[in-house]
Design a protein that fits this description.
With 634 residues, the chain is α/β, with parallel strands linked by helices. The chain has three domains: 9-158, Aldehyde Oxidoreductase, domain 4; 165-235 and 281-356, Aldehyde oxidase/xanthine dehydrogenase, molybdopterin binding domain (Aldehyde Oxidoreductase, domain 4, 2-Layer Sandwich); 372-629, 2-Layer Sandwich (Aldehyde Oxidoreductase, domain 4). Strand 15 (372-380) and strand 16 form a beta hairpin. The chain is globular.
Length: 634
C-alpha cells in the first residue's frame, strides 16, 4: 500500500499535495534546451514560495512551457500551449509543452478537481506576459477562445503516440505481481524457489508484496503461477453487496438527530463504481547509479515521487517520475501502485522492469468511487416553500454537499464510515452522489407542493448562473410545452441542475422505461453548461459530451458487485460501461460563455445532471420514485 492511500474520502478530497520550492540548475537546464531566455513566475502560498510557471524562450524561436500537470485526455497540454501562444503573440506551432517530469517541471500539485484551468493557466499567461509585457483581455484574444484540436490528435489517431504501457528500455524485463485472493488478506508464507529456478526469472518477496520479473510478459505470468500455487493467505470476513448500505449506516462514525417537524424525507443510495480507464495502470522502473527513474501514468507525479523515495529510503533528488500522456484516469490514478511494484522488481532484478496491470487487476485493486448513503429531509410551509432542510451524506464526501437553493434553515453534513472497499477520487468526486440525491429530492418536494419541477426550483433559486443554464436548457428542450403534451406510454421527461468547481450545469431529458425490467433508455438530452470564459470551445464541448456519456453509464448499469471481499463482476462482459447503443438519438450541448466569470475547468461538473434528470423522468413516465443508482423503476 502506498503512503497517502485514499481510503478516507473526506481527507483525500480536501487534501492538497505538499508544497515545494522548485530548484533547478540553470546550467543543466540550458544544456538540455539550448540558449535563450528563462522566465519563472513565483507564487506564495501558505508562507512558502513556489514556482507557479516556467517558460524557456529559445533562440530558435520555440517557446517551451514547463508544467507539473499531466495530460490524460482532458486537453491540458493543448490549453496550456494556447495560453502561452496567446500572451506571447506567436503561432501555436511555436510553442512546446513539457509536462509532468519531476526533474524538469514545477510541482503544480495533483491534476484533479478541474484546477488546471483556474490555477495553472493564469500562471502560464503571467509568465508569457512577463516576456511580452502585457496581459490581454478576452476581447483581444486571437488563439484562446477559438476551437483547437488536441496538439497530439494526429499521433493518437494514427497510433504513433506512446502511452506509459508502450515505454521500453534496453534490457527491460516484464513484471507480474502476486495478488491476494480477497480484500483484507495477508500473505503468511510463500516458496520463491520454483520461480527462481525458471530460466531468466527473478522472484522477490517483501512483506505482503511478492512478484517476479522475466524476459517476456508470458514468462512472467507463468512464473507467477508457481508463486500462486505455493502462497498461503490469511483471510478475514468482509462485507458484501446485499448488506452494503446497512453496513455503512452501522459503521458511521457519527449519529445525527433527524430534522424536527419534517414533512418529507427520503433515503438515497449510489453504488460503488470503477473508473475503467482505457489504459490500465502501467509503469517502467529503472535503477542507475543509485537513482530511480520511473515512467508511469499518474495524475500526481510529485506525490508518487515522494512515495517512491519513502519506500526505498531515498532522497527526492534520487527519484525521477516521468508521466507520458496517458490513457484516461477520471480521478482513478492519483496513486502510483504500478510504479512502486515495478521499482521493487527492478531493484531485485538489476534491470529495468515494466509492470502492466491486467484489466482484472485494474477492476479489483484500483480504488473505487465511494458508495453513498444519503438521508434527505425537509419541511414545507403552507405556500410550498422549503423552510428547513437536512442533508446527510454517509461515506462519499463533501463535494457539492451544500445546496445552491435559498433555504432559511439548513443542515448539511458529511459523515465518514468504515468502508468495505478501497475508495478514493472520481470524476467530480462526491458531487455525483450529492447532486443526484438533492435534485431527485427537489422533484419530490415539488410534487408534494403541487408545483411544476422547474417553477419550484426557480422559486428557491437565487443563483444567477444556475438560473441562466436552467433557462437555456429548458427553453431549448421546450419544457413548458412538453409538460402539457400527452406522452407515449412509459415515456417521461425530467430536469436537473447543479454547480461545482465554479461552473454550472442544467439538463433536460426524455426517457423510455422498459415496463418489464424498469430500466430507462435515454432518448434525448439537452444540457447547458457554463464555466466562465471559454478558452477552447471545441475541447469544452468534448468534455461536456464525455461527462454526459460517463454519467450515463453510472445511471444505467455501472455497479461494483462483491461478496466477502471478492469482486463478482470485475470484467467488461459483466461490468458494462456506456455502449454506443446507449448514446441518445438527440444529444444537444449548449455552451454559455460566461465572460464575467474567470475560466473554470470543464471536465467534471457536466456529469452532475444526467442521473437525477433521468430519475425524475422515470417518475414522470411511471409514477415511481427512483432513489438509487443505477436507476430502476421498481
Amino acid at each position: 500500500m502506498l503512503p497517502n492511500d485514499p481510503r478516507e474520502p473526506e481527507r483525500f478530497e480536501l487534501r492538497e499535495g505538499p508544497l515545494y520550492t522548485f530548484e533547478v540548475d540553470r546550467r543543466d537546464f540550458f544544456l538540455t534546451l539550448g540558449a535563450g531566455l528563462l522566465v519563472t513566475v513565483y507564487a506564495t502560498e501558505a508562507g512558502a514560495q513556489t514556482v507557479a510557471a516556467r517558460l524557456h524562450l529559445g533562440d530558435d524561436g520555440i517557446t517551451t512551457v514547463f508544467s507539473g500537470k499531466v495530460e490524460e485526455g482532458q486537453g491540458a497540454r493543448t490549453e496550456i500551449a494556447m495560453a502561452a501562444a496567446e500572451e506571447l503573440g506567436v503561432p501555436l506551432s511555436k510553442v512546446r509543452v513539457q509536462l509532468a517530469d519531476t526533474d524538469r517541471t514545477p510541482n503544480d500539485g495533483l491534476t484533479a478537481g478541474s484546477r488546471t484551468t483556474p490555477g495553472t493557466i493564469p500562471a502560464v499567461r503571467q509568465a508569457a506576459a512577463a516576456a511580452r509585457k502585457a496581459l490581454r483581455q478576452p476581447s483581444e484574444w486571437t488563439i484562446l477562445g477559438k476551437p483547437q484540436w488536441h496538439l497530439t490528435a494526429r499521433e493518437i489517431a494514427t497510433g504513433e503516440h506512446k502511452y506509459p504501457s508502450d515505454v521500453t528500455r534496453e534490457g527491460m524485463l516484464y513484471g507480474a505481481v502476486l495478488r491476494p485472493p480477497a480484500y483484507g488478506a495477508t500473505l503468511e508464507s510463500i516458496d520463491l524457489d520454483p520461480a527462481n529456478k525458471l530460466d531468466f526469472v527473478t522472484a522477490v518477496r517483501d512483506g505482503d508484496f511478492a512478484g517476479c520479473a522475466a524476459r517476456t510478459s508470458y514468462a512472467a505470468r507463468k512464473a507467477l503461477e508457481t508463486l500462486t500455487a505455493s502462497a498461503r493467505w490469511k483471510t478475514t470476513p468482509q462485507s458484501s453487496t446485499p448488506t452494503l448500505f446497512e453496513d455503512l449506516r452501522a459503521k458511521a462514525k457519527q449519529r445525527v438527530e433527524p430534522l424536527a417537524g419534517k414533512t418529507h424525507a427520503a433515503e438515497f443510495r449510489t453504488a460503488y463504481v470503477q473508473h475503467a480507464p482505457m489504459e490500465p495502470r502501467a509503469a517502467v522502473a529503472e535503477w542507475s547509479a543509485g537513482k530511480l527513474t520511473v515512467w508511469t501514468g499518474t495524475s500526481n507525479p510529485f506525490s508518487v515521487r515522494d512515495s517512491l523515495a519513502q519506500a526505498f529510503h531515498l532522497s527526492t533528488s534520487q527519484v525521477r517520475v516521468i508521466v507520458p500522456d496517458f490513457g484516461g484516469g477520471f480521478g482513478g490514478k492519483h496513486t502510483g501502485e504500478a510504479a512502486l511494484e515495478a521499482a521493487r522488481l527492478a531493484k531485485a532484478a538489476g534491470k529495468p522492469v515494466k509492470v502492466r496491470w491486467t484489466r482484472a487487476e485494474e477492476f479489483m485493486w484500483a480504488y473505487f468511487r465511494p458508495a453513498a448513503l444519503i438521508d434527505a429531509s425537509a419541511r414545507l410551509n403552507a405556500q410550498g416553500i422549503i423552510e428547513s432542510w437536512q442533508f446527510i451524506n454517509y461515506n462519499s464526501g463533501t463535494a457539492a454537499l451544500q445546496t445552491p437553493y435559498r433555504i432559511p434553515t439548513r443542515q448539511e453534513q458529511y459523515i465518514p464510515c468504515d468502508a468495505p472497499l478501497r475508495q478514493g477520487s472520481y470524476r467530480a468526486l462526491a458531487s455525483t452522489a450529492n447532486n443526484f440525491a438533492r435534485e431527485a429530492f427537489m422533484d419530490e418536494l415539488a410534487a408534494a407542493a403541487g408545483q411544476d419541477p422547474l417553477d419550484f426550483r426557480l422559486a428557491h433559486l437565487h443563483h444567477p448562473r444556475i438560473r441562466a443554464v436552467l433557462t437555456a436548457a429548458t427553453e431549448r428542450f421546450g419544457w413548458a410545452r412538453r409538460r402539457k403534451e400527452k406522452r407515449a406510454p412509459n415515456h417521461g421527461i425530467g430536469l436537473a441542475c447543479g454547480t461545482e468547481k465554479n461552473s454550472v450545469v442544467a439538463a433536460c431529458v426524455e426517457v423510455e422505461v422498459d415496463p418489464k425490467t424498469g430500466a430507462p433508455r435515454l432518448l434525448e438530452i439537452v444540457e447547458a453548461f457554463e464555466c466562465g470564459v471559454l478558452l477552447n470551445p471545441a475541447n469544452t464541448r468534448s468534455q461536456v459530451e464525455g461527462c454526459i456519456l460517463m454519467g450515463l453509464g453510472a445511471a444505467l448499469r455501472e455497479q461494483i458487485e462483491f461478496e466477502n471481499g471478492r469482486l463478482k463482476n470485475g470484467r467488461f462482459s459483466a461490468y458494462k460501461v456506456t455502449r454506443l447503443r446507449d448514446v441518445p438519438p438527440k444529444l444537444d450541448v449548449i455552451l454559455l460563455d460566461g465572460t464575467e466569470e474567470p475560466s473554470a475547468g470543464a471536465g467534471e461538473t457536466p456529469i452532475l445532471a444526467v442521473a437525477p434528470a433521468m430519475a425524475n423522468a422515470i417518475f414522470d413516465a411511471t409514477a415511481k420514485r427512483v432513489r438509487a443508482l443505477p436507476l430502476r423503476a421498481v
